[in-house]
Amino acid sequence: MPATPVYIICSTRPQVGKTLLARLLTEFLLLKNGDVAAFDVNLKEPSLLDYLPKVTETADVIDTFGKMQLMDRVIVDDGLAKVIDLGFHAFDEFFKMTDEIGLLKEAARRHVAPMILFVADTDRISARAHEMLRAQIPRINLITVDNEFVVRGELPPAMEGGRLLRLPALPGFLKTYIDRLNFSFTAYLRNEKDSSTELHQWIRRNYLAFRELELSLILQRS
């Protein structure tokens, strides 16, 4: 059996599409598997909990109790995919913790496969954070996310060498539409009869990208 996946979606910057990616991935996993466990580590609203309250719970990594409580929930081989929407405020503390406890080795021992999805930006803080992750996280477990709505051009060269996940840009009016708290990507796919619409194709393209990510996880564990 493939290892239980844990997707950690993170960035050092606000407003880069991190929670949007977490929503998309959570809805994809819910559609595909029928269940998913999502964890919201954010300070500001709207956050993942606001969009998907039935499958999301809040988490905290500021103190030791919060860190251990979160790890106890996600580093477990129960076959249930996990998604962590890690707020930028908690980035340093979270990855300091994962380095100290040897998260990757402990996860491998427990048959769990963490996948770190770093949402890129072009500023120096993002560059330093990405460099830190490359030193700490094996290449196979680190995916750089190129949100074309944010980067608006080529990624910094240092970020292009590893695994990439591209999040295509949407027109502003569609972004406003999907930002509504009651919007569901999967419900849109099911209810919109015209599969040629830009939003329909955008959602399908992202879901297919997630499927490819899952397949790569299965292959690397086989």
Account of the protein in words:
The protein has 222 residues and is of the alpha/beta class. The chain is 47% helix and 18% strand. Strands 3-2-4-1-5-6-7 form a seven-stranded parallel beta sheet, with helices on both faces. Strand 2, helix 2 and strand 3 form a beta-alpha-beta unit. The chain is globular, with a radius of gyration of 17 Å.
Binned strand content:
15-25%
Radius of gyration over C-alpha positions, nearest whole angstrom: 17 Å
Shape: globular
Listing every helix as H and every strand as E from the N terminus to the C terminus, the arrangement reads EHEHEHEHHEHEHEHHH
Structural class: alpha/beta
Per DSSP, the total helix count is 10
Q: Give helix % range.
A: 40-55%
Mean pLDDT: 92
Return residue spans where pLDDT drops below 50 for at least 5 consecutive residues. Answer: none
For the biggest β-sheet, the strand order reads: 3-2-4-1-5-6-7
Q: How widely separated are the two ends?
A: 9 Å
Q: What does the main sheet amount to? A: 7 strands, parallel
Structure, briefly:
With 222 residues, this protein is an alpha/beta fold.
Features of this protein?
10 helices; alpha/beta; 222 residues; 7 strands; seven-stranded parallel sheet
